[in-house]
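Protocol step 4 of 6: record predicted structures for both targets in the notebook before any analysis. Target 1:
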Amino acid sequence: MYSLNVPVPSAVACLATDLARELPGARSRRRGEHTLVCKRLDTDGPDAAGRLDARVREALAGTPPFAARVTGVDQFETAVTGPSPVVHLAVESPGLRAVHERLCEAFDPIEDLEGEAYVPHVTVARGGAPERAAAVCDREIDPVEWTVDELQVYDAERDQRVSRLSLPA
């Protein structure tokens, strides 16, 4: 499975790492692994990965850089996949939502995760004690704002970035 991700600034990664320390027993991401998934990109056929970059670029032609903002800490009490709860940084970005919608037109949305169900977020940790997750979600944080001027195609199977797309596309 591939995905189109938004790289997050170091301030967001540091915040996620700091919050994860308050969630013993939960599986957290290591520093440098924090991203914001814009859209999962399912591929079909043996040469599909080779065409993926071109399809993404075509779908996003003319897309300008856009603003994103981490506004708080929240959780998915019951995750669609994987361990629960999922503590995450909530992200507000009309531009990101617009990109996601464009990509849902070019690539089928994954049920219960994308389209109307899409919730922009940066995962802090999965699993662990629900009480601890709730306590972390009660924390107030200073918002972190940045301009998204790059997107990255990521290969989950190989755990590596495949390509990047500078904005404006």
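Target 2:
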Amino acid sequence: MKIATAAYPLDWFDNWAAFETKARKWVTDAVNQGTEVLVFPEYGVMELATLAGRDVALDLEQSLHAVSDLIPKADALYTSLARKFGVHILTPSAPVFDTAVHPTRPVNRTRLIAPNGKSDAQDKQIMTMFERDPWHVATGSGTLKLFDTTLGKIGVLICYDSEFPLLGRALIEAGAEYILVPSCTEELAGYWRVRIGAISRALEGQCVTAMASIVGTVDWSTSVEAGSGMGSIFGPPDTGFPSTGNIAEGTLNQAGWTIANAPRSKIANMRKAGVVRNSTHWSEQNGPNSTIPVTYCDLR
């Protein structure tokens, strides 16, 4: 599997066509480098709030609704791009008002789209402090998804979720080989918290984790006005992987794709013949095992 993770800047758009042009350019750039899985960051479509004008974009509550209203259209665009280029796309996450999950508040939702057009959504499970107040983002449905694809079994932990080992363990026990980590962190410390979480999940689960970030600053938002980070791809420091566990990383706060090849055959071999067996030996801890439900989604 060749993975591309984005260090993604938010932009101002005067019309939908401008957003469509940007999305197509980013996907095309990754495809031209031979990638098969594209990972966009958390809250990467908050830039859609600009289509409702500056006053709406600057108003937190209005911007949440403005973006949520456009997510079906954005999902359709990314689906068409996944089909056209034959790639898997993890869409930039967004606030989505879904009354089936919460009657009045949005969830933080991303979607994994396969080249055949099949897709399913993953909601963030644990909210950060700013998502709790003032955003008042609702906790997701309580279910993690295991996406079975032609490239391997994939899980998603949105930003803060990657910092909780039992969430990662639930995905590993369900069969995950790759965990995608879209993130949005304002400060360098936030980036490193998520990075350490992604590295830890790779070590514990003997899997590959891929982290995407928002980068840069904007003057039209009070919610995602700054982003710090880079694209990063991690594996366990064990057989077949770099001694640091760092498969690839971009340049801090520099926009663009970070790309690396991470074949599932290496994951299988390392789990079977690695120097250590963290994934297998997890149950030897004294702590409780996870009972978090995981729903199987066949995107093959």
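Step 5 preliminary note on target 2. The chain has one domain: 2-298. The helical segments are 16-31, 54-58, 60-85, 129-135, 165-174, 188-205, 264-273, 278-281.
Proceed to step 6 after PI sign-off.
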